[in-house]
Amino acid sequence: MSHGDELIRLSAADLAGRLAAGDVSSVEATQAHLDRIGAVDGAVHAFLHVAGERALDTAADIDRRRAAGESLGELAGVPIAIKDVLVTEGMPSTSGSRILEGWIPPYDATPVRKVREAGLVPLGKTNMDEFAMGSSTEHSAYGPTHNPWDLERIPGGSGGGSAAAVAAFEAPLALGSDTGGSIRQPAHVTGTVGVKPTYGAVSRYGSIALASSLDQIGPVTRTVLDAALLQDVIAGHDPHDSTSIADPWPSMADAVRRADVAGLRIGVVKELDSEGFQAGVRQRFHEALDLLERHGAEIVEVSTPNFEHAIAAYYLILPAEASSNLAKFDSVRFGLRVTPEGGGTVEQVMSATREAGFGPEVKRRIILGTYALSAGYYDAYYGSAQKVRTLVQRDFESAFANVDVLATPTAPTTAFKLGEKLDDPLAMYLNDVATIPANLAGVPGISLPVGLAPEDGLPVGIQFLAPARQDARLYNVGGALEQLLLAEWGGPLLDRAPALTTHELLATEEGAV
Ligand SMILES: NC(=O)C[C@H](N)C(=O)O
Predict the structure, then answer these.
(1) pLDDT digits over 21-35, tens only?
(2) Any idea which residues are catalytic in this one (predicted)?
């Protein structure tokens, strides 16, 4: 294995240790990741934009500051990929949409500013379903991302680019956004770790809004400790986001380092442990629970009867909010402007621009949302959905009166084939049956890998959910389970991904040309 190959396989925490010890420079680590992107991203297509030169400049600056004895953040010098939903100063930010093609924002989103201030090195922007609407990245206006485990399969969505970049060793860390599962479901299908923090834990200032009462920014990584370290960097109050929580947060990294499940009460959600889930997904989920039980956790069954209505409520609340948030793409202020032949009124230009700039899934949701909010239907649709949302929140409250965390499989199936669900929006929406309730209630959730499904050899994730502001509980149980599984497997799951060697990816790429 070459030096570069070795560097890209390190966890962010281990790479940070090597950087701090002076064994390796940030320029070397950044170059190794840029080389990896150059070698495999033609086949994976995790990135929409790679900012190679700027990343190397940032890395050189960190190396200089370190050499000068400046005290730097724990992750200083470590490369990171950024989901294209977050605006980045001087770098394209499209949210996967044609309508923002060519727009270069004049400022950084707060989570991006924070990672820069902590000395991390942004490598570029990752692919996603247009405006984060989807579970496969196939709704990206720039073509789908491929799952590094099997290039014919989806990497999840909407943040499939971030998850695939991390799974394919193109970046040790990535930022994602999760409105109904967009961090956790891609983590599940790519064998990575994804966390949706408590609503309000991380500022959304500069995040291109999908549904403002649901959106949350969070980490995508290969280890639970790396996710904790990244959450520690990005969480915290921001006066630019009125929903951001003012109270300080305890260290999530400490929760991982002290992880211990003895006496922890874990509630298995009965409604999400059912026939509708792939057999191998349930098998790995139950094996993980058994492992936790053998190490002192108490497993109990809990019932959340209103979760079955969560998807229906989400697909009224989300389109309603999205139709309002996307109204700002009006051809006047950002990106694309299409003028009908021979000119046109402002309204005609706006309409031609939105017609050309938005893809079919975005149009579908704008129409749904506009309808749900229209006079005469508002109470019947949006009003009822809000009532269901309250019932889902109450289900969580009564469950958390009895248990410390809840556990579910993260998603019903392993990675499906590209194209398989593209013509069936409802089938696509059902991927989020286990992840949406957390967004409706604002509670935090983590997904981490628990093995490969026996029937197809593809990764399976377990999801843990905790009460709002108790994100540390997720890092505790996730960190403990990860250690137990690593001991069983004798090494990380991602080392077993068949399509992950540069050689094989290149062969596939050449074969495809
Ligand atoms: N945005 C998300 O969190 C993903 C979800 N699948 C959606 O399409 O809304």
Answers:
(1) 999 999 999 999 999
(2) 83, 158, 182
